[in-house]
Amino acid sequence: MTEDKNLYDVVIIGGGPAGLSAGLYLARARYRTLILEKDDFGGQITITADVVNYPGVARTDGRKLTETMRQQAQDFGAEFMTAEATGIDVDGDIKVVHTSRGDLRTFGVLIATGASPRKIGFEGEQEYAGRGVAYCATCDGEFFSGREVLVVGGGFAAAEESVFLTKYATKVTLLVREEDFTCDASVAAEARNNDKIEIHYSTELQGVSAGPGGLVEATLLDRTTGETRAWKPADQGTFGVFVFAGYVPQTGLVKGVVDLDDHGYVITHGYLETSVPGVYAAGDLRVKNLRQVITATSDGAVAAVELERYASDMSARTGLVPPRPENTPYEKSEKEAAESAAASGTSPAPVAQGAGNAPAKTSGFFGPDIRKQLDVVFGRMTARLILKLELDDSPVSGELRTFIDELVSLSDGLLSSQVENASGVQDFDPAGDLPGARPCVRICRIGADGEAEETGLAFHGVPSGHEFNSFVLALYNAAGPGQQVDQATSDRIDAINDQVDIMMLVSLTCTMCPTTVLSAQRVASQNGKVRAEAYDLSHFPTLKDQYQVMSVPCIVIRKGGQETVEFGKKSVPEMLDLIGA
Predict the structure, then answer these.
(1) What DSSP character marks residue 142?
(2) Please, which residues bridge with residue 516 across strands?
(3) CA 279, chain centre distance (Å)
C-alpha cells in the first residue's frame, strides 16, 4: 500500500446534521474525511430556537446542537473546509470534487446538501421579502413584537415556529392549506392549545399589500368555498408574514450525475447509495417520508458505515491509502486519562481553595473553548492590528471596552487598542453613507509610520453572539493570510475600482447574518475601495426605522451615488454580484 497525501477516503458535501454525523462516524473509524460547507456549518436546524425532540437532549437550540456535533467530528479527526462545491467527476476509482478552492480527490462522496425554504409565490412575496415577509422566526421574530403575524404552513416547522412567535406577537394567525396539520399530532396540539394562535384550515395566502409602515392587508382564499376575503390585524396596524411551506432540495450540483425524482430529490437505495457506485446521499435532499434532524443524523451514520466499506475496498483495489487521522483531541484526552489512572494508585483528598490553588480566572466573554479557537486564529495571523474604539457614555460602550480589552489581553501582542471617547450619548445621522454610530470598533493595520490605517472593516455595537466568529475572521482577513477564495473570485475583488460602502444591519441572534458580514468584510479586507461595516440593530433602532427593516441581515450598498437595499444571507460571489463587480 502507498500513502497518498492528496487523497481522502470520503468527501462530505454539506455541513448539516447528516454531514456532521457521517463525519463523526468516519473519522472515529480513522478514515480521512473532509466536510465541505459553502455557508455556515449546522444546516437549516441552526435557525430553530427550541429543539425538544432530539433523544437524550431535553431542550436546546439548533445552533448549540450542531456545534456539539461539529466539535465531536473535529475531535475524532474530521477535517473541515469552507468552500462551494462546483462539480463532481464520478468516473473511475478516484472521484474528484471541484470546489471554489480547488479540486479534492477522494474514493467516496456523500451528498448532504440539504434543502432550503420554499417560496410559495403569493403576490407581494418577493417584493416585501425583508420588509414584512420572513422565513426565519428566530432571526426576525423580534421585529414583530407587539404586532400580529400570519404564519403559512401546516407541517412541523409551521406548528413549532407559530408557538415560538407568540413570544413576540400579540396574536398568530396560522394558515393551513390542507384540512389538517401534516405533522405529528403532539406538535400540532401545542399550536392548537395556545390561546394566542388562531388556526384557519383549507386556507391559502394569495397576496399582501403594504402601506407606509409595512404590510397592512392580506388576501386569503378559502379552498373549500373558493371565496376570497381581506384580512387585517385587529388594531388595523401593520403585521408580518412568516412562511414555513416546506423545502426545496439543494440537488443542482448532482443533477445529471445521480438519479433524482420528479421533485428533484435524490433517489437512494437500501443503504443510501445512489445510482452511482461510491456516491451516497443523506439528509433532507433524499426521497424519504420524514425530514427531521434525527433522521438526518441517522442517515449520516448509515451512509458513513457503508462508505467505510467502500473506501476500504477502493484502497485494496488501487493500492492507495490516504493519511489516517493521528494525535486527535479525542486520542489525546483518552491517553491522558489512561496515564492519569495508571499513575494514581489512590485518589487525592480534596483541599480547600486558597490563594495558591485558586482556579484560573475566566473572562465573562471568553470561556476555555473560545480561548482555544482564538489561539488557533492568533497563531495564523501574520501581522499585528490596532482596534480603534469610538465610544461615548452609553452602557454598551463600556461593554465594548471590556470586550476588546479582554480580547487584546489574549492575543499575545498581536492586537492593541486605541480609544476615542466622546462625552454623553452621541447622536448620528441614520441616513448617512456609513453612519458613525457609537460604540464602534474599527479594525486597523499598522502603517509604515506605526500609525493606525483603517481597513474599512468595523462593527457598531459589541461583536458577540453569532457575530463573534465573523469578527474574529475579520481580524484574520485583515492581518493575513486571510481566508482563501478561488482565483476568479479574487480577480473580481481586485477589479473593483469605484468606492463602495456596504452597511449591514444585523441581529446577534440571527444565524444567517454572520455569513453576510463575513462575505462583505472579506471583500473589503482585500480591496481598499470597499468599506464594510456591521450594525447591531438592537442598539440603533433609528437605522431599523430608516430602512424599514423587518428581516435581517439587511444590506445597504452605496456606489456611484446609487443606493441598493437587499436582504438575506450572501456568499462572497453573491456579495460581488450585488456590488456589480
Answers:
(1) G
(2) none
(3) 26
Predicted pLDDT at 569:
87
The Cα–Cα gap between 445 and 461 comes to 21
Please report which helix (H) or strand (E) contains residue 109, including its range.
strand 102-111
Q: Which of 423, 392, 418 is nearest to 405 (CA)?
A: 418
**3-class SS of residue 569:** coil
Centre a 10 Å sphere on the Cβ of residue 3 and count the other Cβ atoms it contains: 10
pLDDT of residue 341: 57
Query: Which residues face 88 on adjacent strands?
Result: 97
What pLDDT shows up at residue 352? 46
Q: What are the CA-CA distances from residue 439 to residues 325, 427, 489, 510 (Å)? A: 45, 11, 33, 20
Tens digits of residue pLDDT in 39-88: 778 887 776 667 877 898 888 888 889 999 999 999 999 999 988 899 99
Q: Output DSSP code: residue 255.
A: B
pTM above threshold 0.85 = no
C-beta of residue 239 within 8 angstroms of C-beta of residue 210: no
| CA count, 13 A, side-chain hemisphere, 407 | 26
CB 135 within 8 A of CB 569: no
Distances (CA, A) of 513 to 288, 458, 509, 516: 31, 15, 9, 5
Mean pLDDT value across residues 102-107: 96
Is 286 in a helix, a strand, or coil? strand
> What's the pLDDT score for residue 575?
94
Place of cell 453612519: 435
Residue 117's DSSP bridge partners are 247
Q: What distance in Å separates the CA atoms of residue 298 and residue 278, rounded to the nearest whole number?
A: 19
Residue 96 reports pLDDT greater than 50: yes
Cα–Cα distances in angstroms (integers) from residue 410 to residues 390, 414, 473, 476, in the given order: 21, 9, 16, 15
